[in-house]
Amino acid sequence: MVRGQWPGAVERLAQQLGDAQAADRRVKEAKATAARQSPSSTGLERAEYQRQLRAYVQTPEHKAAAHAIRVAVALMKAHDAALLRSAHTLLARRANGQRPPRRLPRPLVLPGGYAPRWWISSINSTYAGIWRAIPSPGPELRLGSPDDPLVQEVARQARLLQASHVGYRGRDDLYEAFHPDGTREGGEPVAPICGLSPETSRRANLALGRGNGIRIQPSRMEEAGQMHTDYFAVWDRSRAYAAAVLALLRARA
Q1: pLDDT tens, position by position, for the chain (253 residues)?
Q2: Quick one: DSSP state of residue 135?
Q3: Which of 158, 188, 225, 230 is buried deepest, with most CB atoms within 10 A?
Q4: How far is the C-alpha of 130 from the C-alpha of 79, rounded, in Å?
């Protein structure tokens, strides 16, 4: 009986993946539409291009295009976060020999596609809960050999999502208070606070507002770039993880 329930649950995940992919396409379409409407710099002097751009951003067309992008991005985030929770839930239950849930997590969207400003702000400020849904590698190993390409792909996508989580959580660790010297990247970090460890001192300097600026620590610029990449890739990676889980579940159904 339990085995007979799994094909339907797997196909519900497939439908949810399709919905998330469609939401991602709508973001790309909204951005492409905005780009087509915006003034082109081709053949224009910089001053004239800037003048046209300033005029364009005051138009109703620009405001409508910007709003369409904000709505599409918020919807995409809501779909991706729910998809990630669904994929991990099904994988864990299948690995543990349990029956699938009667309902999968659904995106936090309002009926009729209604997207007021407060809802968009809520999705953007909480990331639709995607960071709490980041899975750890492991359950897939109970559904096949470590040499199985399907198992390996699920584990790989889970590791990439973990890297995104590290990028999200580690951003604040990159910054330091400093004294600029007038050049683009020059200046000296604020002196450590006597009696504190270097890390505690760095955090205290930032919290106390010491120095005349804040910057990424020069020695960690490469790390910052990777964290930035991983952080913003979480949405694409959620869909890739769900696709990998779907392929594994279908193979084991």
Answers
A1: 345 589 999 999 999 999 999 999 999 999 999 999 998 888 888 898 889 889 888 999 999 999 999 999 999 999 999 999 999 999 999 999 999 998 999 998 888 878 899 999 999 999 999 999 999 989 999 999 999 999 999 999 999 999 999 888 776 776 677 778 766 667 788 788 887 787 777 777 767 778 777 776 777 778 777 778 888 999 999 999 999 999 999 998 7
A2: P
A3: 158
A4: 10
